[in-house]
Amino acid sequence: MATPTTLAAPSFGTLRKGVLIVVGAVALYFAYSYVLHYFVWSEQSYGYYWQYRLPLVAHATGGLLALLMGVFQLWSGLNGHAMGTHPVTGKIYAAGVLVGSLGAGVLAVTSHAYGFAWGVGLFSMAVAWLAITGTAILCIKRRKIKAHRQWMIRSYILTFGFVTFRIATDYVPAEALWHISLPEMSTAMIWPVWVLPMLAYEVYLQSRER
Q1: Integer CA distances (angstroms), 156 to 22, 48, 164, in order
Q2: Exposed, middle or buried: residue 32 (CB in 10 Å: 0-12, 13-18, 19+)?
Q3: Rounded to whole angstroms, how far apart are CA atoms 99 and 126?
Q4: For residues 58-77, b (16+ Cβ closer than 10 Å) or e, as one string?
Q5: Residue 86 exposed, middle or buried by CB count within 10 Å (0-12, 13-18, 19+)
């Protein structure tokens, strides 16, 4: 008599791939909805940021490269596929982070779009983005593969933080819920969009070590 079979729980690899597919889909949506119009070189496309168009287009270009290339980097690095092209695409990702973080840093200092506190948050995010990505590069140069993977995930958490920030400020009805303005909402959200995911990842790493 045949014993009844049960559905096997999805492996961690399958779950990881599913998460990366969702992240990639959201990244493509963000690129189409929020970034591509900055490549139309006109005052209408940039609005308030027209006077800051050079650092903004640097931030948009670098961030877009890092956002899209980062999905491939995580997919290939975590699953051991396409490792022949992984170093090349990794350099493209790092270049995107460099250009994007420098653009964000200049915007934080010069634009004052949402005030001083928001500028401090954006500048801090740009510095962390650059420093964490640099640490990931240093790890791979020293052949510390496991540490490199972990720091690259941290780097992409920061990369994706720009996506989370824009979605949160656009789709959370802050004025209706808390009676606050868009600048206040932006100033509040510039930190948790990357600090909280980073904290969650650190807790996950520690739980695995135990």
Answers
A1: 14, 28, 12
A2: exposed
A3: 10
A4: bbbbbbbbbbbbbbbbbbbb
A5: middle
Q: 10 Å Cβ neighbour count for 129?
A: 28
Contact 57, 70 (CB under 8 A): no
Q: How far apart are CA 131 and CA 64, in angstroms?
A: 19
| Helix, strand and coil in the chain, % to nearest 5 | 85, 0, 15
Helix 53-79 crosses helix 86-110 at what angle (to 10 degrees)?
150
How many CB atoms sit inside 10 A of residue 196's CB? 13
Determine the Cα–Cα distance for residues 63 and 56; give it in Å rounded to an integer.
10
**Residue 121: closest CA among 44, 174, 186, 73:** 186
What's the whole-model pTM score? 0.86
At 167, list the tokens.
């979605």
pLDDT in tens, 59-106: 999 999 999 999 888 887 776 666 678 888 899 999 999 999 999 999
**Which contacts of 80-86 are long-range, i.e. CB under 8 A and separated by 24 or more positions?**
none
pLDDT tops 80 at residue 57:
yes
